[in-house]
Structures are given as structure tokens and as C-alpha cells.
Design a protein that fits this description.
The chain is an alpha+beta fold and 171 residues long. The chain is built from 5 helices and 8 strands; from the N terminus they run ββαββαβααβββα. β1 and β2 form a beta hairpin.
């Protein structure tokens, strides 16, 4: 049982719950807590995952790739976040419930209603100041998994998985 989530994402017109994403992210020892929202982007919805890291860990491309790969494998390719961004805290109600809608509204530039219901409203300023945009350059990172005869290409937040047989055609 993964718990209840009232948030529904709709990337590409397909309804997804956030619980499947949370259940995969919480398996990582590096991640203390996370919040996932859908952001209106380019006439669609893209998934943004915000994470708080445990001490002594950093959010690097390798960790992002591992999380995306695990979400893709255990949930679905549609559940994979477009962006994974580190934050220092997550907005909560006074009853300690995570407030996904406030984050969605703030990153889309919308007004936040019921700020007085939040236990930590100042954290919204951190989300407001995050620049969530597409990169201008295309940068590739590769991970080769010889045990599974696959390699993964990671470019601009997207993960592509190829079989090694397919790679012969690309070289």
C-alpha cells in the first residue's frame, strides 16, 4: 500500500497518480523526501520532481538517471519526471500534509490561495525563484549495463534505453 494521493498528473493526456512516483523515489537512500507536480509546458503537462536529499549526498546526473530509470522500469515511461530539482524544504499544511497544488501554482506563476493554512509559507519563495526551463544545449551522458545488454543515453533530462544489438546500427 503506497498511501493516498489527491494529485493527478496528465502528461500527454494520460491520467497518472503521483503515488507510483513517490513509492519509487522513497526507495533511494539519498532522498529524504520529495514532492511531484505537473507543470503546464508547451501545450502539455510535464512532471517535475523536487527532492530533499539526506546529508552527505548530492543531486548529480548519475542519481537523476538512476531515479528516472527506476521510475521507468517500476512505474512506466510516462511517470518519468522531465526535471528533478533539489530543494531545502517542502511546503506543508499545519497538519503536516504536503501541499502539491501550492507548488504547482507557484512554479506556473499563479497566485497562492490559503497561504495562512501553510505551516511554512516562506518556502514557496524558494520554489518561485527556481528557473525551470529547457536547456539550450544538448548534453549526453551514457551508462552501459553489460549484464542486461543495454546502454542508457541521458540527454537534457530525458532517458533513452537501447539494446546493444541496436547500438551496432548507431555506431
Amino acid at each position: 500500500i503506497y498511501g493516498r494521493s489527491d494529485a493527478t498528473l496528465n502528461p500527454g493526456g494520460v491520467r497518472l497518480g503521483t503515488a507510483e512516483i513517490y513509492s519509487e523515489v522513497e526507495k533511494f537512500k539519498e532522498i529524504k523526501e520529495s514532492i511531484v507536480v505537473g507543470q503546464s509546458w508547451d501545450n502539455d503537462i510535464r512532471i517535475i520532481l523536487f527532492v530533499i536529499l539526506n546529508n552527505k549526498y548530492e543531486l548529480n546526473e548519475e542519481l537523476k538517471l538512476k531515479m528516472k530509470k527506476q521510475i521507468r522500469f517500476n512505474a512506466s515511461p510516462r511517470h518519468v519526471p522531465s526535471k528533478i530539482i533539489q530543494v531545502s524544504d517542502i511546503p506543508r499544511t499545519k497538519n503536516n500534509k504536503i501541499v502539491e497544488l501550492a507548488v504547482k501554482n507557484i512554479i506556473e506563476g499563479n497566485q497562492i490561495k490559503n497561504k495562512e493554512a501553510l505551516a511554512n509559507p516562506k518556502i514557496l519563495d524558494e520554489f518561485k525563484n527556481i528557473k525551470i526551463r529547457s536547456e539550450q544545449r544538448c548534453r549526453f551522458n551514457f551508462v552501459i549495463d553489460l549484464d542486461n545488454n543495454t546502454f542508457n543515453a541521458f540527454a537534457n533530462g530525458e532517458i533513452m534505453v537501447f539494446s546493444l544489438r541496436m547500438a551496432k546500427w548507431l555506431i
